Amino acid sequence: MHKSVYHGLYLLGVILLVLPFVVPNSFYLDIAVRMAINAIIVIGLNLLVGFAGQISLGHAGFLGMGAYASAALPTHFGWHPLLAMGAGAVAAGLLAAIVARPIFRLKGNYLAMATLGLGIIISIALRNETQWTGGPDGMPVPAMELLGLEIANDRQWYWVIAVLLLVSVWASLNLIDSPFGRALRALHGSEVASQVVGVNIARYKGAIFIISAMFASIMGSITAHYVGFVSPNFADFFHSIELITMVVIGGMASIWGSVIGAVLLTALPQALATFEGWETVIFGAILMVCMIFLPKGLVPTLAARWSRKG
């Protein structure tokens, strides 16, 4: 990786190290944890949408699969939380593998509708299987254990998720810089040209869809354990749109854009809470302004302007 990339990782590490000591109370620490969780999910989604150019409007369905695996398997069958998390990730990966080939034969609006339908099917299944999932009311999630120790408070969760964020950013930057990542970017540029130079389009599309789905499932499990409760809202359509919006605002095909987009859109509703009754209108207006003046996303646009000045 380029030296500047390592500089970015070092800076992120310093910020994560200092942050819990400067936030004024547990409320802000909770927001920081949620920012980091969303950042990891959005990184996985951006690998699929931004780098490979494959839209997904049902990604929260995989998030819900992981969350409910971590709730239902320990509750009903006594599974260890880590084993349940792994089972959820495997299930999400298998589902992605099964549907990838037929779905990714589609393009544009048809692909968007197919992924939307997949997410809706998962959401309905989780909502209707009342005996296993608690139905619309949701269900509690047992505490997470690591090495025999229970992760019980916000500060402990912060350190776990901060490490996961650093590892996710590092792994994703390496992935994009690898031959696999270059093949993904070639797919985004032109599928026909990619095929001419020997890229197996179906295999690469399927592989990145599986990776992205497993990313989401694992973080769904982490979120469920952190919150201590899971409901069908984890997997609903609006959550998928929220995640896509984070990708677009931060910057398509930008790992750092994923982090910035997740941070901004997690914090923004809290910042607008004082505008009682108008927060949704203001939120929408801010998104419109960003899309008009920053069409490529915040990080790529600012980086391009900075390079021109340099």
TrEMBL record:
First-listed, main subcellular location of the protein, grouped into a coarse class: membrane
Name the UniProt record assigns to this protein: Branched-chain amino acid ABC transporter permease
Keywords: Cell membrane, Membrane, Transmembrane, Transmembrane helix
Transmembrane among keywords: yes
Subcellular location: Cell membrane
Topology in the lipid bilayer: Multi-pass membrane protein
Pfam families: BPD_transp_2
Native source organism of the sequence: Comamonas faecalis
Residue stretches spanning the membrane: 6-23, 35-57, 77-98, 110-126, 157-176, 207-231, 243-268, 280-299
Keyword Transit peptide: no
UniProt-listed InterPro entries: ABC_transp_permease, LivM-like
Domain of life: Bacteria
